[in-house]
């Protein structure tokens, strides 16, 4: 025993153990954020994601020329990936910048037809209020009278507060075609204001787009978990 103690030298490598463990933990957390494990709450659920606008319809255009349709598609792609990784069946009203129809009415009817397949429907948009450029924050809308839609909107809005620092509250939308024509829990998610210079810059960037998708994803998981199935 005495010989062992006399010969013992702390290995230099030991100095690296703690930082390496910390880095491994950090990477594991990052990995689990972007690649969630199968979620019992989502497994087998059909979720329809609707990136608003597209193609000939840019939606609102931000102060730097950022087009809403591109923001909507980027956030939607991130969200679809998260949902698919969790075992949900994900249907998307568009996967790229092309639309099947060249007029608004047929385009909206096609989106509504797909929404009828859904256990849950999320239409993703960005907002604009040029008269007050300071206006900011993600806001979730549900159809008036759709109680499950209201719960879903509140679950997502809570995450928008925590993860995107939005101070807005979920509201009933007075007149939204897709909300009126979808029986499943349905929301329109306005992920920020393109008329606000700072928020427009954030909305155009990958970090905010990933964080917005994460807020939507966590809200959806929480909604399904709390609704019992
Ligand atoms: Zn829009």
Describe this structure in words.
- By secondary structure, the chain is of the alpha/beta class.
- The chain has one domain (39-226): Zn-dependent exopeptidases (Aminopeptidase, 3-Layer(aba) Sandwich).
- Helices cover 47% and strands 15% of the residues.
- A six-stranded mixed beta sheet has the order 2-1-3-6-4-5, with helices on both faces.
- Helix 3 crosses helix 8 (206-226) and helix 5 crosses helix 8.
- The longest helix is centred in the first third of the chain and has 21 residues, at 14-34.
- The N and C termini lie far apart (61 Å).
- The model is unreliable at 1-6 (pLDDT under 50).
- Bound molecules: zinc ion (ZN).
- Residues 52-53, 59, 68, 125 line the site of zinc ion.
- Zinc ion is lined by residues 52-53, 59, 68, 125.
Keywords:
229 residues; alpha/beta; Aminopeptidase; six-stranded mixed sheet; 8 helices; 47% helix; globular; disordered N terminus; binds zinc ion
| Strand neighbour order, sheet with most strands | 2-1-3-6-4-5
Q: Tally the helices: what do you get? A: 8
| Helix/strand/pairing category | alpha/beta
Helix/strand order: HHEHEHEEHEHEHH
Q: What is the C-alpha radius of gyration, as a whole number of Å? A: 22 Å
Strand content: 5-15%
Low-confidence runs of at least 5 consecutive residues: 1-6
